[in-house]
Amino acid sequence: MLLVTANPLLQSLPPRLSLSGGGSPPLRSRNARSLIIGKATTEGSHLAVHNTVFEPFEEVKKELLLVPVLPQVSLARHVYSDSCEDAINDQINVEYSVSYVYHAMYAYFDRDNVALKGLAKFFKEASVEERQHAEKFMEYQNKRGGKVKLYSLMMPISDYDHLEKGDALYAMELALSLEKLTNEKLLNLHKIADETNDPQLADFIESDFLEEQVESIKKISEYVAQLRRVGTGHGVWHFNQMLIAEAAPA
Fold first, then answer.
1. What is the tens place of the pLDDT at every residue in 171-201?
2. Contact 157, 103 (CB under 8 A)
3. How does DSSP assign 68-96, residue by residue?
């Protein structure tokens, strides 16, 4: 039985009000404070079931069928396309390749007959940063249930001296080209995420890489402009000292 508080206007109704169709009237007296209503109709009950939005135990049945049982298949993989998995493995290779080149630059400028410690430190830190980017993509690949595949790396050049530009400007221009190439690869990865309707991958790229990549391009562009001004002589040494001062703790 359902108890519903009566409207105060019912108190003004005549005491012998009855409903057509016979049966006991629901209102017993003018002073009644409540209205007794019988059990809910079949139509009302059907309406309540019909309006159900989410039936988890019914909808989860199809997901249970998709849970892999083979031990070599990822349990975490969900709405993650093969094209996204392959593209992330390609990006891992890009990040490691750039890191490899930067590490070779660090080794060159750290030589005793080159001895530009500021440039050596800059490229060493850049190498570590690119390697960290590769590892971040590896972690994301595992998080989404993909398989990390590490490809072969091309051997970088060992000497960066240039007859016209000098070693510092030549290496910095090469670094700028690598940063722009990396940015193109990231944008292509973002495009693949959009085409495969993977907003989680797109958000990961936007949040962790794109802004930082633009900042790196801007920073190295300024270094290139400064090295073009100072030439290949004593100005390179002053530029090197500037990098050392920037890296020194405040």
1. 999 999 999 999 999 999 999 999 999 999 9
2. no
3. --STTS-SS--S--HHHHHHHHHHHHHHH
